[in-house]
Write a structure and sequence with these properties.
319 residues, two-stranded antiparallel ribbon, Clathrin_H-chain/VPS_repeat, zinc, protein-macromolecule adaptor activity
């Protein structure tokens, strides 16, 4: 009356009712548990108390149900195998679909039980249809040595056909990958042979000063930047670690340039190689893509034009 009519949610009341069902009316115990549902947050009784109570009175099916609610699927399957294989199969399918490893492990336990305890080879082979995760090679180790191949001939044929199909798919993927690699090689070769003209009137896209006044970068999209202008544009968009690395490389490039000027006429292949490596790393960091056409521009689309601190200052200048 308290629970059904008054809709009482008090845990003590539900625990007491559960104890009465377990002791006096075990045939209604599962009905009560099913009515309570499977959502642990809405269940009114204490799961641990219910598990201990049902275990004391030997209600294995109820224990399986509670184990499942607690997420203890391995214990639920092990206990369900003492009751009914079909019940164990239901528990094996309860873990999340993403947790394939656990589901496969549970199904293998059931298959092993059927083969070793019930000696039912035919029924074990049916598990290959019940669970898509199981393969014939997964359950073969459970069979005794005297089992003839006739028991699982069809399963072996099906498995071989699946492997052949998988091999064909892999071949197609390899062919596609080979074609893609060939296309990439052709594109790389075309970029190596690509060139562009720079005239004396060209200007830096950032500062609008003559481009050839100092060192510059020219991108395939034909945007052109002075080296220092490009670095100045890229730096604010780099991580602090990369920003520090760029500044460090700039210092090294400047030092290498100074040492090269001071040692004119002196052979120094090793220092030249180091200078090239430093310059190449700097290029990778700041000139891997055009700042106007690359991903950098796309990533900055949601950035405001003005910083929060500068907004009031700009507004006051307009008034």
């Amino acid at each position: 009356f308290c629970i059904e009519q008054l809709d009482n949610k008090d845990q003590a009341i539900h625990n007491y009712l559960l104890s009465l069902y377990a002791k006096l009316k075990p045939d209604q115990l599962m009905t009560y548990l099913n009515i309570q549902g499977t959502d642990e947050d809405t269940i009114c009784y204490d799961l641990k108390y219910a598990l201990r109570l049902c275990a004391e009175h030997g209600h294995k099916k109820a224990c399986v149900h509670i184990y499942s609610l607690m997420g203890l699927y391995e214990e639920a399957v092990d206990l369900a195998l003492q009751v009914d294989v079909e019940l164990a199969k239901q528990q094996a399918d309860k873990p999340d679909e993403d947790d394939n490893d656990l589901r496969k492990k549970l199904w293998l336990r059931i298959a092993r039980h059927v083969v070793e305890e019930e000696k039912d080879v035919k029924r074990a082979m049916e598990f290959l249809h019940d669970c898509e995760l199981l393969k014939i090679e997964d359950i073969l180790p459970f069979f005794p040595d005297f089992v003839t191949i006739d028991h699982f001939k069809d399963a072996i044929v099906t498995s071989l056909q699946e492997y052949n199909h998988h091999i064909e798919q892999l071949k197609e993927e390899m062919d596609d990958a080979t074609k893609s690699a060939e296309e990439i090689r052709k594109e790389i070769q075309s970029f190596r042979n690509k060139y562009a003209f720079v005239s004396a009137t060209d200007k830096c896209a950032a500062c609008n000063f003559p481009l050839m006044a100092r060192s510059f970068y020219l991108f395939p999209c034909h945007h052109k930047f002075h080296s220092d202008c490009l670095i100045g544009e890229v730096l604010p968009n780099l991580t602090s670690k990369k920003r520090q690395r760029v500044e460090e490389l700039q210092r090294k490039v400047a030092e290498n340039e100074d040492s090269r000027v001071s040692s004119v006429g002196v052979r120094g292949d090793n220092s030249t190689d180091k200078s090239k490596d430093t310059k190449a790393e700097l290029d990778d960091l700041v000139a891997s893509e055009c700042i106007y056409c690359g991903d950098l521009m796309v990533r900055s689309i949601d950035q405001p034009f003005l910083d929060e601190g500068d907004e009031d200052l700009v507004l006051s200048g307009w008034l």
